[in-house]
User: Fold Ig-like domain-containing protein from Pleuronectes platessa.
Amino acid sequence: MPSPVQTLGLLFIGFYCQVSAVTFHQSPPSIVKENTVVQIDCSHNDNSLPFMFWYQQRQDRLSLTLIGYGYANSPQNYENQFKEQFKLSRKSSTTGSLVINTANLSHTAVYFCAASTHSDVVQ
Assistant:
């Protein structure tokens, strides 16, 4: 008999890399319960990169899908399919968060943050 509480497995990659002397840190991997709020934090150490981008990579796809982007103290920009379910926030030019309002199985993916000097996006 199925359990009344379903568990949602979301893999959030603990992302640490150094590219051109910029270091990124992301929240560690997590497994969360369905219908909970999930927050993934990201930071980097370069004030000259004001734009932060968030991407989703689903298990069945090799490519990354842009969720949205923005810079500190400004409204964030979302791709249409992510507007209702996700919220992006920026605490400063080097820190930001991705929030999944009500996590469900369709959100199972690896999430990445990135930073840039401009908002030009290749999709």
